[in-house]
Amino acid sequence: MRRFAMYLLVLTLLLTACGASGQPEANGEMDALIKRVVDGDTFELDSGEKVRMIGVDTPETVKPNHPVEPYGKEASNYSKELLTGKKVKLKFDVEPYDKYKRLLAYVYLEDGTFVNEKLVRDGYARIMTIPPNVAQAELFLAAEREAREQNRGLWALEEKQAEASKEKAKPKKQSNNNTVADTAPPEGKTIKGNINSKGEKIYHVPGSASYEQTNAETWFATEEEAQQAGFRAPKR
């Protein structure tokens, strides 16, 4: 009799969490055990069901015909360390399943850590709000704002990429090598002066073999002027 009463209690708890149908229902919750992490925002339960965390989006690592996105491996490894083999509580919003038949859930560790928020706040995920599952949207927005302001995770990477783009867009400074583009010669000066990779100062007069290919670093009016500046004629 006592064993039967315990059975009824467990059954009642399950029905309360998942509804009378035994399936997850809107705004319900359930305890679960995570078998493996698929990528940063998706994992598989020991029951075989896949779970997609609500409101967050980590960079792709396993999407078919899609390259691994920057910071994707870091996010995936972070979730694996955080979730693999862990007992969690799944809480549902308005829609318990997505179109791929994955559970949509807010995920809580046994110590109360709200995993969805933690991924965003630590810089491993951006927010991705899809109505009607918006119960925690404001919390996620605040977490992302903090991560961005503190340059955490993928936000630090994006800032580095932005700085690199700015540097790339800056006009190149002229340097003393043969790749510097020619500028228009000063009036009356047609002899090109160039310093090669060995540091040799060489001048080229119009019509000489290397004149057209040479980028002038300085110009001279006469060969005498070039020689006085320490330049010599080409050896051939």
Q: What does this 3D model show about the protein?
A:
Keywords: Endonuclease, Hydrolase, Nuclease, Signal. One of its GO terms (molecular function) is 3' overhang single-stranded DNA endodeoxyribonuclease activity. It is an enzyme of class 3 (hydrolase). This protein is α+β, with helices and mostly antiparallel strands and 236 residues long. It has helices spanning 2-18, 72-83, 115-121, 137-149, 154-169, 223-228, and strands at residues 29-39, 42-45, 50-53, 56-57, 87-91, 103-109, 126-127, 191-195, 201-204, 218-220. The chain folds into 2 domains: 2-153, Beta Barrel (OB fold (Dihydrolipoamide Acetyltransferase, E2P)); 173-236. It has 6 helices and 10 strands; from the N terminus they run αββββαββαβααβββα. A 5-stranded mixed barrel has the order 1-2-3-6-5. The chain has a 3-stranded antiparallel β-sheet with strand order 9-8-10. Strands 4-7 form a two-stranded antiparallel ribbon. A hairpin with a 2-residue loop joins β1 (29-39) and β2. α3 (115-121) packs parallel to α4. The radius of gyration is 33 Å and the shape is rod-shaped. It starts with a helix and ends in an 8-residue tail after the last helix.
